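User: Could you write out the 3D structure of this protein bound to pyridoxal-5'-phosphate? I've included everything you need below.
Assistant: Certainly. Input first, then the structure.
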Amino acid sequence: METNTKTRIVFVPTPHNPTGALLSADEIMILVREVPSNVLLLWDEAYYEFGRHAGGPETLPLFKLRKGPWFCTRTFSKAYGLAGIRVGYGIASSSDIAGAIRRCRPNYSVNAVALAGAVAALNASEHSENLLAHIARERDRLVSFLEQLGCQPLKSCANFVAVKTPVAADHLAAALERSNIHLMSFHWEGTNGALRITIGDAGATDAVSVALKLALQSC
Ligand SMILES: *Cc1c(COP(=O)(O)O)cnc(C)c1O
């Protein structure tokens, strides 16, 4: 854990975007203990629900063991599919930290319709469970297609898969764009780069697999 006297915030997304990697309880505890207590430890848990479904730790009891300040952010944009209504929440180690965040947040940032949507989403636990199970199933199916195509998918605990490709990832992304499949490609030192594929319905898994196969054949 490298910090110096100028470090103010250590920012940790888990599960991580764009790799989908999830920290274990032991790894979280290393940060909880070793980030100096004059540094804010900020946990970005945008994909928390997927991490839990994949067997990840319940994180709040671990965060609470920290002596120094921490803040964790969660969103209704991902597991609850409510990105269009802009609602999320944070949990702070103290009212001082919560107050500091409140002061730099825009006024009325969450409207009444968004709040009603968030509450309805939290109460629809059966729907959420089904959705998380569906994502995990399609993620497994996509991973095995990708392996068959000679790609190297990373183990993901989120609603997307990052995959190292046997040819330049940005060329593949451009080819898929022509089939109306929009993927993010990113640079990865010493490799051909990687694609980040978001999980959708079963038809989307099939479509991306077929399009990728064709694109790889024409490269
Ligand atoms: C989506 C996402 C967020 C939060 O998204 P909002 O839609 O603004 O709530 C935060 N961090 C990461 C890594 C994300 O992928």
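The mean pLDDT is 96.
User: Perfect, thank you.
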